[in-house]
Amino acid sequence: MQYFESDYLEGAHPLILQRLLETNMEKAPGYGLDKYSQSAREKIRKACNCPQAEIHFMVGGTQTNATVIDSLLSSYEGVLAADSGHINVHEAGAIEAGGHKVLALPHTYGKISAEAVETYINTFNCDANNEHMVKPGLVYVSHPTEYGTLYTKTELKRLSAVCKRHGMPLFLDGARLGYGLMAEDTDVTLEVIADNCEVFYIGGTKVGALFGEAVVITRPNLIPHFFTIIKQHGALLAKGRLLGIQFDTLFTDDLYKQISKHAIDMAKKLKEGFMEKGYRLYFESPTNQQFVVLENKEMERLAKNVSFGFWENLDSNHTVVRFATSWATQERDIEKLLACL
Amino acid sequence: MQYFESDYLEGAHPLILQRLLETNMEKAPGYGLDKYSQSAREKIRKACNCPQAEIHFMVGGTQTNATVIDSLLSSYEGVLAADSGHINVHEAGAIEAGGHKVLALPHTYGKISAEAVETYINTFNCDANNEHMVKPGLVYVSHPTEYGTLYTKTELKRLSAVCKRHGMPLFLDGARLGYGLMAEDTDVTLEVIADNCEVFYIGGTKVGALFGEAVVITRPNLIPHFFTIIKQHGALLAKGRLLGIQFDTLFTDDLYKQISKHAIDMAKKLKEGFMEKGYRLYFESPTNQQFVVLENKEMERLAKNVSFGFWENLDSNHTVVRFATSWATQERDIEKLLACL
Amino acid sequence: MQYFESDYLEGAHPLILQRLLETNMEKAPGYGLDKYSQSAREKIRKACNCPQAEIHFMVGGTQTNATVIDSLLSSYEGVLAADSGHINVHEAGAIEAGGHKVLALPHTYGKISAEAVETYINTFNCDANNEHMVKPGLVYVSHPTEYGTLYTKTELKRLSAVCKRHGMPLFLDGARLGYGLMAEDTDVTLEVIADNCEVFYIGGTKVGALFGEAVVITRPNLIPHFFTIIKQHGALLAKGRLLGIQFDTLFTDDLYKQISKHAIDMAKKLKEGFMEKGYRLYFESPTNQQFVVLENKEMERLAKNVSFGFWENLDSNHTVVRFATSWATQERDIEKLLACL
Amino acid sequence: MQYFESDYLEGAHPLILQRLLETNMEKAPGYGLDKYSQSAREKIRKACNCPQAEIHFMVGGTQTNATVIDSLLSSYEGVLAADSGHINVHEAGAIEAGGHKVLALPHTYGKISAEAVETYINTFNCDANNEHMVKPGLVYVSHPTEYGTLYTKTELKRLSAVCKRHGMPLFLDGARLGYGLMAEDTDVTLEVIADNCEVFYIGGTKVGALFGEAVVITRPNLIPHFFTIIKQHGALLAKGRLLGIQFDTLFTDDLYKQISKHAIDMAKKLKEGFMEKGYRLYFESPTNQQFVVLENKEMERLAKNVSFGFWENLDSNHTVVRFATSWATQERDIEKLLACL
């Protein structure tokens, strides 16, 4: 069986486990006050060229989204997001459980545009009844998106501009950020993100860590008492060192980039393999998630030897399925997959 | 100036004020335990032919929607509603503030169909990731809808059937219910609603009362501890007699129907007046809200003498506006309005 | 039967009903934008000598407490209140339903002291683990308290000072405010309250209105988007004129004070009647609620002809019961009550 | 420097790290569906002699408390807990953020009694106003308590009986459960806990794991859709295998008991050392937390070489401080500490 259904099938990059092992019996204060967390923060600040950034570590994506969004919104505000956004579809209502509406915008392969945001806000502002409506208070984007697509630097800048014009923070969900940063032809770097987003996070769970997301607040004091907010959301890890050590390792010697690049290479090989054999891609994805159109019979046959993600029915005979590579995918995994076609 | 922007411009039907006056100095227990509330409940049960119904009175629509929906949903459930539904647009996020997602469905002039509900649920049930998603737990419809349109008896029965099939209650927002019941050609009566909805409410605020909505729970014990839930939502009126007296009056000698019928007659006169003068209706509304297409210049001119509601831009030269009649509209109001055209 | 169990047994002062009647068929915009609400606001500003005050009207006490407290607290903050406070005991958890902890302080007949607040905050500030704890963010007092007792001007000033010192607003629940203002020997006026509290409300429900509480925000812009917050809490009355007319009437020709004074006179007569007959007061209450110690047998006998509130068991043979007078109590009601002893 | 301020200073027991290492590159499904989680569940069921138990793994204590309590309560219910309980003091209001009131009971060194619970409920049931109050819906106890004390089997049985009598679940927070199970003279075993509690959890974070709490639901189907509830609370770990592997290791060859016993031995040695040197214990604690009374000067001197937890001021000259041992404490750590006295 070949496994391509997600990018969190394995444990962690071996270097991370090694460092957990080396430091295991050291005594360290809890809750992120340890020296490893401090070191990781310093390295991330440098990587983002954002010396003033506040950095907090959390365990998982839904937790991070719910905690950050709740902390950035007033009670009467909602969050603008793509209709297809993770927070709108696959977080079991965690945002609403925190009291906030997700204001869904139409998307193009997972992306929303500055124009759509601007139009939403202008329409809201012109509505004579807007005091009876949820005020848009934040824009959420994911990069890569749930479709594996990427914003360009220009697109991010324009989103940031519309947000600034309307006094709203821009929050970027980077659960798969490494795979975005190392895509070919992207001009979006960590520095570009830090320049344009008030808050974003660097995903570890899907990019080489056992677990963990590094939240970067690029404007100091944007979120007062964030530590307590994290605690209230049940998102404060007692042994914060575990997060510190992992991110410290990922941000040493460019490990985060290097393993992300590997996943991109594997995705390229996979994509090319499919195309050579005459398969059709649903659309062009530059990152570690590839979406392929399969005839339903072919899909059923393939499912016996390969695991992949169901994406959507294309028509009565075809289905779109997702193959995900990761830091841990090996070249021979791809070869075995292609051999099954 | 002629006022047609809403159906809550005046106080209450004179008979209601008279009874408030007559009973004013009587001493009555609070919180709906008084004899007037008991009497009103009895009359409503009869009018619905639903002797087992539990009936609670609340003050306003948003409050009622938020309290009822919160009481019917488990924490992991959301409410299916038309994209255009009041709870999705004009309640400032009250449902989400209670922790629940509004699962928006496409609508046709404010109505959703049993097919759309069925499709949503089947798609949800078939989704391998549905444990990560908000479970649909309730269907919300408004009748009349925000567009003034009405469900037919068959449509309600089919909505009820799909709800029952999937173990979900059907909740009907009747903020303007009287105007629906008295529309020409409708086959939906209070009894039909009580037969098909687990919970619904009979709107008073927009139909002759100072304020007040009568919540009818057609299945006994569907909502344990509803009294405490009402209190927790700040929706328990200390002098519950005020609600009891108002609904007792509205349900004496068919007053509720009679004044609703009057509003329908006035709407018909208004509609015919517009049509005779060559105006175009946006669509055919059978109730007290009429939607007329106006040239923008005409609209601006009219706005100097008549107040109405902005609905939407039709094209660059035309706008859809709303005129609402009510129990209090007088024939000469319509005449004056038509004279302005 | 003589009724003394609460101060909301009747409808409204006749002048209020008369004005509702006179204005009934006028057309007025909704949601508090009408001229009566504007007029009432202006009169209340004058009565408080607080020209910059923002004033909003809501329907009931629990609703007002929940809405105001939610609007004043950040998500990580709680509200300091007497252990016996209405919000801590008798609002069905409305504050917690909004996400906030009530931080209970010991009380003396319903009152908390500036010292207790100061000590709580200092202890909190010195606790090395306070980032794991709920931050006190607001002080709630009721005046009169649930025991009918009153703060002095000095006590309020000291509470205000400790609040200011720690950057917390002081919020005063005035559900029975009239009866406090007109108590003998009090030096607390509306002006004193407006000087010392960031937010307070003037109770109408228990003091002559059908319903209604006037929320006074003494610092402009303290609560951005309060209108939307009110809507979200289901606390926005469609026909806001009803609140405007009631408070406009109550603040015309000193009606609010005059009818409150009457309740105090009646309470005094009641108290003196009990004392003359040798009964013991549980403590000295200066307002419209009187707490009397009854032998249990006497209590049972009395309960056949008089309704009153159970307060607490004093010992195995004695019970404390509450008698409430109001704007509507008549001298002969007291006489009949005393004749039953 | 000697570190005794908490029991989560180190990483994990070496056997756990070894197994994480061995299994690291295996591909496993996420969210707890992996074979290690299944195996761990089976071992825990056996250890509890509760074959029907449902078992879910979460990351930390506050998260677990908030998720479980929210899942067990209706919206109108609160949780009874010791005034000193972790959920009432040190979870930043996580329970209230979920909408529920913590109903605080007086405690004796962290313990509440069946009598106190019974009295609370009877008082509630007899209160004529209880429909305006938060209904007690659940009892929360911690074992060991925050004071390191333990319930006896009889005490747990009596708590369970009062809960059953009133239809409430009993929930036991076992963040330090191992240290309770292995205390000398305790008659409370995992089986006893499973017999008496509807839900409890077995703490890993403080007892040898990197992180993790195993929630045991002893009554099948008590909590429908718990998986989705976990997700909504941001408490679902993507790589659930990490929790499975850790608990599988802890419940292999009695490792959990063995390392817990070691902590108890170390605590005993520490306690005896203090007593031999004439120090006074604040009270007798049978578990890994020991509370010692220190003169303030002695405390300040000691703090230069030893870290410990501040507990409370005893009088103006004395302070109670806490020393915690753990699975990782070494005999020579104790000796060095005692040498500092």
From TrEMBL, chains A, B, C, D:
<dbReference type="Pfam" id="PF01212">
    <property type="entry name" value="Beta_elim_lyase"/>
</dbReference>
<feature type="domain" description="Aromatic amino acid beta-eliminating lyase/threonine aldolase">
    <location>
        <begin position="16"/>
        <end position="295"/>
    </location>
</feature>
<dbReference type="GO" id="GO:0016829">
    <property type="term" value="F:lyase activity"/>
</dbReference>
<comment type="similarity">
    <text>Belongs to the threonine aldolase family.</text>
</comment>
<protein>
    <submittedName>
        <fullName>Threonine aldolase</fullName>
        <ecNumber>4.-.-.-</ecNumber>
    </submittedName>
</protein>
<dbReference type="InterPro" id="IPR015421">
    <property type="entry name" value="PyrdxlP-dep_Trfase_major"/>
</dbReference>
<dbReference type="GO" id="GO:0006520">
    <property type="term" value="P:amino acid metabolic process"/>
</dbReference>
<keyword id="KW-0456">Lyase</keyword>
<dbReference type="InterPro" id="IPR015424">
    <property type="entry name" value="PyrdxlP-dep_Trfase"/>
</dbReference>
<keyword id="KW-0663">Pyridoxal phosphate</keyword>
<dbReference type="InterPro" id="IPR001597">
    <property type="entry name" value="ArAA_b-elim_lyase/Thr_aldolase"/>
</dbReference>
<dbReference type="InterPro" id="IPR015422">
    <property type="entry name" value="PyrdxlP-dep_Trfase_small"/>
</dbReference>
